[in-house]
Design goal:
The complex is a heterodimer of chains A (about 120) and B (about 110). With about 120 residues, chain A is mainly β. In chain A, about 0% of the residues lie in helices and about 50% in strands. In chain B, a hairpin with a 6-residue loop joins strand 4 and strand 5. Classes of the chains: A mainly beta (about 120), B mainly beta (about 110). At the A-B interface, strand 5 and strand 10 of A face strand 5 of B.
Amino acid sequence: GAVVSQHPSWVICKSGTSVKIECRSLDFQATTMFWYRQFPKQSLMLMATSNEGSKATYEQGVEKDKFLINHASLTLSTLTVTSAHPEDSSFYICSAKIQGDTEAFFGQGTRLTVV
Amino acid sequence: GQNIDQPTEMTATEGAIVQINCTYQTSGFNGLFWYQQHAGEAPTFLSYNVLDGLEEKGRFSSFLSRSKGYSYLLLKELQMKDSASYLCAVMDSNYQLIWGAGTKLIIKP
């Protein structure tokens, strides 16, 4: 199956700093990438959908200026959490799909802890 | 609104069979997915149903009834490693995945 690599797997940062998370499709070209956030014991919550070369579409309630998403190439999307606060501590997961395909492939997730 | 319902938690015995149900109400339907998620890890794909009926894949089977808005995931010959959360997700008319809250499956020896 297709492989999606997410980096880093975990990160601890200080409050007020920014953190960048990368999501790469290793063996296919991902026209669409999705970013999710998952709090403990809760389901995945879609944050935004990004299509290569265009601006990301954010879900209601997700601050686009705080969660910067870049999808500059068909194999890489990045999520930058700016001015992180403790309440941003969560498990962030990306998934990628090929246009026209139904299945999305998940990265391994990034556990962010803001102290 | 869009809604996916599945039980919060289930308990089963090693070697037994368990069925996890999922009911959905979505704007449009382009398939239903089941994912397995171990604690602290990303979900892994288990099955995809877009037509009515049963899809069997080894110890796991998934069933879909579109007219009833209903699916189930059947796990046979349960193993301890099957202890995980099982997520039901429906792809709506916009090809967005709508996620259920997940069913935590606890396997006892």
